[in-house]
Structure formats: C-alpha cells, structure tokens
Amino acid sequence: MATSASPLPVTIPEPVTEPIVLPDVAACPEPGIDKPSSSAEDATPASSSITSRKRPLGPDLTVPFRRKRQATSEEVTELIIPPDAEYYFENGLRKVTPYYFTWTTYAKGRWLGRTLEDIFRDEFFAVNKDVTEARISADSVNIFVNGIRTQLTHKIKNNDYIANYTHRHECPVTARPLKIVAETDDMLVIDKPASIPCHPCGRFRMNSVIYILASEFGRRNLRVAHRLDRLTSGLLIFAKNLSAAQSVHDQITERVVRKEYLAQVHGRFPTETVLCNEPIDCVNPRAGIYQVRDTGRPCTTEFHSLYYDEAKNTSIVKCKPLTGRTHQIRIHLQYIGFPIVNDPVYGANALYTGKDKIDPVGNDIFTDFPEECQRTKHFKLDKLPDDPWVDPKCPECWVKFEDPKDEDQRIDLHAWKYQGPSWKFETELPFWARHISPSLISEPSEASIVSLPDKTESQETFQLGSATHP
Fold first, then answer.
1. Under a CB-based contact definition with an 8 Å cutoff, are residues 180 and 4 in contact?
2. Mean pLDDT along residues 141-150
C-alpha cells in the first residue's frame, strides 16, 4: 500500500511568481471520536503572506475554439488556480478565501431564446433570493458574450460563449485528508471523504478532489475513471494516462467491474438479497433530481443485509450496482422503502419522497428546492470584516455564514470495493460500519437472491419510524 506524499506548494501561473503556501494539517478524526476543537484560537491561518496577496488578473475574455465534447474517460480538468485564492483550515473544515474568477460556458440547449437575466436568476441561485438578485445586479457589468460586454437583456443564441467575471465564494468541505489507497504507473486510487466533490462543480472549485490532489500531492493530469456523489465517501479511481482511462472506462461500460457499496438505511432490511430493476430518469436538471420512471434508463441494484441495529431501527446494507446511473443506489433504496438515514434529497425526512408527481421539467415541487451544498444559515453584516479578500461591491461579502455541521456534510453511503479483471481495490470500513464482524460480510448464495415484487396499491404507503411517506 502506497503512502501519501508530503503536501506540495501550488505553482501559480504567470505572471505571479510566488507559490501559495499551504499549511500542514494533521488528519482529522472521524466524527464522534475526539472531535477537533471549534474554538477560534485553533483556526489555522490561510498563510503568513495573506496581507500581501496578489491582485487578480482581470477577466479572461478569450473565446476558445469549440471542440467536440470528449468522452468522460478522456477529460482532463484544466487547473486554473487564481493568484488570490488560498486554503485555510478552521473548525474541522477546509475553506478557501474568496477570489476573482471568470466563469465560462457555451450556451446550453435549454437556454436558447432566453435572456441572460432569466438564466442567472433561474439556474445560478446564490444563498437566497435577495442575495441572488443583488449578485445579478452587481455582476451585470461583468458579463460577456463572445468576448463582448453584454446587457442582461441579451437573448441567448446557439454557440454563444458566456463569461462572467465574479468574486467567488466557495462552500467549505471537511478537513479530513484524502487517503491514497494504492498507486501504480497507470492508476491512482484514493479514499475520498464525504462532502468533497470529485471535480469542480457548482459552488466548488478549489475545494474539489482534483484541485486538492494537485495542490497537496502534486498529482496532475488525472482522468476520473468513475464518479462519486459529493456527500458519498469511499473509493475513487483516477487514470494517469489516456490508455488506462479508456481501459477502465470500457471495463465499467461492459459491466465487468464489480462494485460494492455500504449504506446505513432506516428499518429492518429483509434477510434475503433484493434486486431492484426500476428505471431512473432526470426530472429536474437544475436541482439534479432523479426519479424512478418508466421513461428512464434501465438499471439494476442488488442489496444484501449485513447488520440490524434494533435500538436505532437501522440496517447496514451491502449494495451492488450492476449499472451506473446517477444517484442509483440512493433512489432504489428510497423506492423500496429503506432510504439512507441521513440523505437530504432521497432520505426518510427529505422534502422529496420519490413518488411526487412532477411535470416534464420538474417545476412544481422544486420551486425553492435547496441544493445539497446550499448554506442556508446566515445573516447580513452591518460592517465588513477587516480581511484583504473583501470586496465591498460583492453581495456575498456582506453575508456571514454559519459553519455546516459534520452530520450535514455526509450521507451514510460508502464506495467500499471495486474489482476489475486484473485489479482489485478496497478501503477501510466507514466509521459507522466498523462494528460489523468480518464474518457477517459474506457473499449470499444464489438461492437467497429474490427480485423485488411489483408494488401493489397497499404498498404505496410505507412507514419508517414516525414519518409516513406517500
């Protein structure tokens, strides 16, 4: 087993010549075991050079040549590290100082014919409606289409290249370190903590696995062989070269890779292994919500009970996704009546039950649906803090956020084992499953596997604890 490399400084692109200095952070313990202190005195400063940070380089208005989208296995994330962005650690969280950034994208099909103002309001929600409106107003002078400053009334056309120069505030993630499970000439395998996304998305960029691997382990030009949800922990495989990426991608596509996950769910799970074959479809692209639907893509998940805790009325379940759809395990567990205990989207106490009637674009129950990473506990400041990164014109600089709790930064779903024709990787058990005896983690016989029966009218309502779900 390989050991992780020592943290390395991030090399900043020209014209800046000084590297970002990253603190040496000790491994944070698992929740419930010697939790780190939350006092202000224990906060790790971003860097001793924070008072002399470099000025931003200004918006990048280059319009690149539009190439055909690469296959997922061929994608290499371009690492653009702003000169004014720095990591710091506080209250058990990894944070990033706000920084100026040029967000860019080509027009999406659903945007055509709509105004920039409508798109920013509907699809780029920031904190709450008031801050979103203030952000739209503040950024209106820094929006460019095809390299030209543009008014918010501009209607999007096909192939429009949109750039927004903004003061970016990232959400914090856990300070627990990435653990290198194994490394070869072709592959890098890590144990990803929950709360960290695999790649830049939404309100995360520097706080993503790709950027952390580059800044602290010196690993660059990596291709993600598969992906995990942000709130999911466990095994994550990267390919170091194109041939290895294509090989792993083909193995996964051809379904010769065996995947095993662990989940903690509500209720006493059946002792027989259950097969769920329900198709899944996306019902809301903005919120990233999926649902069991006849119009969806076919998918199959196999479940096997490992342990039942009578006191908590929860079960530890082994999950084997035989296909690889987005949120597949979470949706299938919710659908069969055993949702993951702390899943904010598909869990027992979630706003969305999985049986809600949704129109084709998902506009009915998702009007105010919060993103998983949305920080809702905040208050407006009367005076700006005396920090070098503050921009008085930025609406989010006038908002103070409460740090998220550890239990809100994860779900009890863990990618445990991945095995291909010539390789096999495995992580340690997650902290919430370490009490399981190894003898309980055994393979069921084929005779014990049963398919989930079709739901009848009487099964449309199931009860978990004190919550009844329609």
1. yes
2. 86
Residue 41 has a pLDDT of 41
- Give percent above pLDDT 90 in the chain: 36
Alpha-carbon distance of 232 to 413, in angstroms, equals 5
Q: Which of 105, 102, 9, 10 is nearest to 57 (CA)?
A: 102
| Residue of 229, 343, 406, 412 with catalytic role | 229
- Quick check: pTM over 0.70? yes
Does 6 score more than 50 pLDDT? Answer: no
Q: 172, 207 in Cβ contact below 8 A? A: yes
More confident residue, 33 or 200: 200
Q: How far apart are CA 162 and CA 320, in angstroms?
A: 41
CA atoms lying within 13 Å on the CB side of residue 103? 18
Cα 136 from chain centroid (whole Å): 25
- The pairing of beta strand 223-224 with beta strand 233-239: antiparallel
Is residue 80 within 8 Å of residue 102, measured between CB atoms? no
213-247 CB burial, b ≥16 within 10 A, e <16: bbbbbebeebbbbbbbbbbbbbbbbbbbeeebbbb
Check if 382 is active-site.
no
